[in-house]
Amino acid sequence: MTIGTGDRAPARRFGGLFEDMPFASKVGLAIIAFNVMLVVMGVFGWAPYSETELIGAPWEPPSAEHWLGADQLGRDMLSRIIYGASTTIGIALAACLLGFLIGIVLGFTAAITGGLVDQVLGRLVDALMAIPTLILALVVISVLGTELYILILVIAVLDSTRVFRLSRAIAMDVVVMEFVEAARLRGEGLWWIMRREVLPNTVMPLVAEFGLRFCFAFLFIAALSFLGLGVQPPHADWGAMVKENGAGISWGVAAALYPAGAIALLTIGVNLVVDHILARQNRSAAAAFEEEEP
Q1: Residue 194 half-sphere exposure, CB side, CA atoms within 13 Å?
Q2: Is there a contact between 85 and 146 (Cβ–Cβ < 8 Å)?
Q3: Which of 55, 62, 180, 292 is the most buried (most CB within 10 A)?
Q4: Pair 242, 283: CB distance under 8 Å
Q5: Distance from the Cα of residue 115 to its chain's centroid
Q6: Cβ neighbours of residue 178 under 8 Å, at least 6 residues apart?
Q7: CA angle (40, 223, 36) in 5-degree steps
Q8: What end-to-end distance do the CA atoms of the chain give, in Å?
Q9: What is the DSSP code (8-state) at residue 65?
Q10: Residue ranges per structural domain of the chain
Q11: pLDDT (tens digit, 9 = 90+) per residue, 13-59?
Q12: Greater confidence, 36 or 6?
């Protein structure tokens, strides 16, 4: 059910977000919390060794001192996993936040303004979405370089096109409501309507989409690093670590499986939580529809 200014329904939705959470979603939440802990450890340097320190022979097996063994150069795999978490997840989160900021602002602007602005923004987004994402990213990064800020900007711009389509679609259902028309008659500006009227009534679908877009950005960075155009050595990155240690699989070395497992585990955890958010959203929509029926 749609609300107007002053209604506290969004706060209640977030307050009850974790009520009746199924076991699978709790597992996903625990996985996310564990990865957040890894990011904090990497940011503050709370790892057994530095990400470039040599601690033994290449592909040294796990031991009491080195729980995950060593990588192809003899660096501690556990420390590399910790530092890689802060790099890979940090870049993905920054790119996703920037992409959502761009996509939501432009999507809401198109929905509220309409007319020529909506047409121009829509055609620009269609043109970007017509080009395969990976190919476009590879071309741009090959020309501009592989600095971290370039990676974040490229992924954010590509990701914002999907966010634009979703935010515009859900905002179109809100801008026709009476409280938005009342705000326009009061003379409220575009930014005020966007922030006070449209955003509170679209927050839950956007939260669910944020989880899915984060997974896309996370896997996209890992893929770019695997291809050699992402995070560059000696910085640790889970995608690059899979590539660097991939040759060891032929010799029975499991070093490449640790970062690959970390990538898969975080993706599964985020999707488990997103599934719960979407299920709650569908139940809320069904309940609101039943209340409106005579």
Answers
A1: 17
A2: no
A3: 180
A4: no
A5: 31
A6: 4
A7: 15
A8: 15
A9: S
A10: 30-43+68-292
A11: 555 566 678 899 999 999 999 999 999 999 999 999 999 999 989 99
A12: 36
Where residue 3 falls among pLDDT bands split at 50, 70, 90? Answer: very low
Q: Where are the alpha helices (DSSP H) in the chain?
A: 9-15, 23-43, 77-113, 115-130, 133-144, 148-174, 178-185, 190-193, 203-226, 238-245, 257-292
Which amino acid, residue 175? V
Q: In this structure, is the dihedral angle defined by the CA atoms of residues 107, 113, 115 and 116, taken in order, positive or negative?
A: negative
Distance set, CA 152 to CA 35, 87, 155, 160 (Å): 20, 12, 5, 12
Q: Is residue 267 predicted with pLDDT exceeding 80? A: yes
Amino acid at the residue 234: P
Place of tokens 């996509």: 103
Provide CB contacts within 8 A for 105, sequence distance 6+: 194
Statement: residue 294 has pLDDT above 70? no
CA distances from 176 to 63, 83, 128, 146, 280 (A): 64, 48, 28, 44, 25
Q: Which amino acid makes up residue 282?
A: N
Dig out the tokens for 146 from the structure.
Answer: 């592989």
Residue 276 has pLDDT above 70, yes or no: yes
Question: pLDDT tens across 22-35, in order?
Answer: 899 999 999 999 99
Residue 17: the pLDDT is 62
Q: Is 19 left (phi over 0), alpha (psi -120 to 50) or beta?
A: beta
What's the CATH architecture for 30-43+68-292? Orthogonal Bundle (1.10)
φ, ψ for residue 16, nearest 5 deg: -100, 15
Dihedral Cα 146, 149, 152, 155, nearest 10 deg = -50
Contact 244, 58 (CB under 8 A): no
Count of beta carbons in the 10 Å neighbourhood of residue 7? 14
200 touches 10 (CB < 8 A) = yes
